[in-house]
């Protein structure tokens, strides 16, 4: 490689550094001026009917969400690209309870902070839902790695894959409607409203029946606070909740680490491609100037 090609290669690498610096993970978004909306789940009222699952699949069938007719409650069913919410049965110290799981829609979402292109972002009308925009996604899947609740799912079997998860029916909220799961819950286990009002309602229930509930609202502080919040009669780990997520917003953990990811994953491959291209140009020039060198024996 001659000096000119080396300089070109280094120039390409330097340009990549600038790109990498420009693609740093986003810092946590400023708190919205409006109160975020949320959903309170009272697991003591859930009857395991799975109407929420059916309503979710019906509302989002165009996105490929499917309803599983005969769910096996003997195993824990996880969310997937085709199942945005899942109700599971738990045998606890106080008997049988059911709990619905889906994206928690964090107040300071790690997935949005990790997204280099803002494909994953917090919706602002109204604030609360974390949504994904297809034409912005570069397929890095950092949102999946960063989520403390393991909710974003990737369509590995699709030619043009998408990131799928619960979007809290953001399109319905924009029309002034409730999320489909809340609207179709027959037992009153799901309550939709402003997050601060839901927290107040949850506290009232705990204070009114202190022997019925554990004195904790899951989602009030977990991972910096979430828009989905839960009440329970038993410790939340007995209902399969991750109780080790901590109270700190996850972008504060991931931001410094993610700053280095673009350098590793963007700078190095681009440098190698530039180096390869420069080497091939040199070989082509050499063959042109010395044709015999390109022929065998």
Any overview of this molecule?
The protein is α+β, with helices and mostly antiparallel strands and 297 residues long. It folds into two domains: 3-24 and 253-286; 37-248, Alpha-Beta Plaits, CATH 3.30.70. It is 34% helix and 15% strand. The protein has helices spanning 3-22, 51-59, 110-114, 142-146, 170-174, 180-183, 195-208, 251-289, and strands spanning 37-42, 86-92, 95-101, 120-124, 127-132, 153-154, 163-164, 190-194, 228-231. It has a three-stranded mixed beta sheet. Strands 2-3 form a two-stranded antiparallel sheet. It has a two-stranded antiparallel ribbon with strand order 4-5. Helix 1 runs antiparallel to helix 8. It is globular and about 50 Å long. The two termini are 25 Å apart.
CATH arch. level architecture of the largest domain: 2-Layer Sandwich
| Topology-level CATH name of the largest domain | Alpha-Beta Plaits
Tell how many strands the DSSP assignment holds. Answer: 9
Mean pLDDT: 83
Q: Look at the structure and give the CATH class of the largest domain.
A: Alpha Beta
- Outline type: globular
Radius of gyration: 25 Å
Strand order in space, largest sheet: 8-1-9
Distance between the termini: 25 Å
SSE class = alpha+beta
Please indicate the count of domains. 2
Fraction in helix:
25-40%
Q: Strand percentage, roughly?
A: 5-15%
Low-confidence stretches: 3-32, 293-297
Order of helices and strands: HEHEEHEEHEEHHEHEH
The helix count comes to 8
Q: Largest sheet, if any?
A: 3 strands, mixed
């Amino acid at each position: 490689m001659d000096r000119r090609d080396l300089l070109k290669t280094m120039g390409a690498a330097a340009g990549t550094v600038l790109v990498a610096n420009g693609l740093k993970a986003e810092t946590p978004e400023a708190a919205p001026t409006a109160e975020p909306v949320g959903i309170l789940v009272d697991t003591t009222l859930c009857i395991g009917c799975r109407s929420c699952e059916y309503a979710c699949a019906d509302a989002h069938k165009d996105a490929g969400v499917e309803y599983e007719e005969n769910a096996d409650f003997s195993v824990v069913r996880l969310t997937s690209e085709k199942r945005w919410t899942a109700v599971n049965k738990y045998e606890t110290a106080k008997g049988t309870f059911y709990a619905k799981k889906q994206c928690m829609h964090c107040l300071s979402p790690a997935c949005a902070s990790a997204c280099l292109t803002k494909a994953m972002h917090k919706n602002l009308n109204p604030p609360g839902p974390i949504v994904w925009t297809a034409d912005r996604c570069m397929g890095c899947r950092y949102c999946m790695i960063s989520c403390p609740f393991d909710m974003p799912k990737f369509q590995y079997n699709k030619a043009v894959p998408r990131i799928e998860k619960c979007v809290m029916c953001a399109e319905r909220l924009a029309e002034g409607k409730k999320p489909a799961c809340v609207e179709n819950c027959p037992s009153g286990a799901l309550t939709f409203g402003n997050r601060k009002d839901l927290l107040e309602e949850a506290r009232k229930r705990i204070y009114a029946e202190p022997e019925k509930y554990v004195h904790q609202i899951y989602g009030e502080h977990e991972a910096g606070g979430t828009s989905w919040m839960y009440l329970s009669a038993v410790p939340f780990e007995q209902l399969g909740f991750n109780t080790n997520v901590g109270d700190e917003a996850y972008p504060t953990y991931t931001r410094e680490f993610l700053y280095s990811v673009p350098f590793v994953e963007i700078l190095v491959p681009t440098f190698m491609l530039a180096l390869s291209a420069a080497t091939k140009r040199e070989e082509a020039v050499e063959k042109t100037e010395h044709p015999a060198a390109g022929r065998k024996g």
